[in-house]
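Pair request: fold both.
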Amino acid sequence: MRPEFLLENQLCFRLYTASRLVTKAYHPLLSEHGLTYPQYLVLLVLWEKDKQPVNDIAKRLYLETNTITPLLQRMEKEGVISRTKGTKDARQMIVSLTRKGKGLQDKLAEVPNTVGNAVICESITPEAAPELFRMLDDIISKQAMREAGQPVNPGKVAEIDNKTP
């Protein structure tokens, strides 16, 4: 078997698995408040800045509007957000937090630290976390540029050493 086709040599598998498992760590903390992880991400965006167009929320989450619309519809039905037509452009939908949505911020205040501490303390040192964030941000921004058809300086592809335990 060619080494480039071994599962343990795939960056995509590591990213996918880490993402899936970290996201899973949020589930028990969010489900007690009736939230899913994608809904939590929408709340994070709106807690930073309320009253945003659907397009802006989708861009911030690196999602398409047709992906986020059903999610927003469920959140509106649950009374967490409201959607209204834009005043300048009636085709634009503005998403706002309801009182319930704003109140969830206090109820979920410990979620970032609980999950962050579990992931960092059990996986990497707190000193290494900023470098990990920088590397992940770099991957995300370059992949987003590729997706948008913009040129990207590819840099050097790292060799994976699977000899370490």
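--- second member of the pair ---
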Amino acid sequence: MRLLIFIVSILSFKLSLGQTEFEKQYSSDVCSCVENMHLTTYTVDNFITCFQDMLQKDSKQVIQEYKRIYGDTVFSEDRHFGRDLYERIKVSLVGECKTYAILLDSLRYNSIKKINQDSVTIQLKNLDTVGSVRQNKDYYNQKSLLFFQSKMYDSSLANANKVLNIDSANTQAMYFKGWVDEIKGNYDEAIFLYDKVAALTKQDNFLIFSALAKRKKNGM
């Protein structure tokens, strides 16, 4: 579960129910800014730079948007315009900006690459010694996670399914089942599961994985 929390914390966000014209233009400007760097690979810092630069470039529109949201243009420390703007656009930006989508997707897989595989192997061997009485949903969830970290996706999926047979609303098993489906190219199933996890947990952050799966379904 800790890996799941870590991944979600990287990509956490609030769902925007609809973009304003300013948000659409700002998103487009940020994406163009990054892509005009013509880099081989992009980093979070590249996007932060462009987010900041575009706020300065679109200063008149920013003031208008600030006033629309807060009712005035008086600066206050309890108003976090830039942060809140990013929170409102970063989901839709997945569909609008390929470079951004690729970056977010790479962050998710990079978190897996950093895991010590020897440690994973030892943990799996230790689980094999657990008696049948203790082989509950937590046991199968842990095996599903460890097999996933070892890129043994069929075994991960099999254990996630065992969890869901015990607890059909188990969000961790549902999430990793969705991720395996995504890896295997079963995008519709992955999207369905990510959306369901978001609904069950009431955490919109899982919808970013759904947005990435939608892009991949369309060729990224």
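Observation on the second member. The chain has two domains: 17-90, 116-217.
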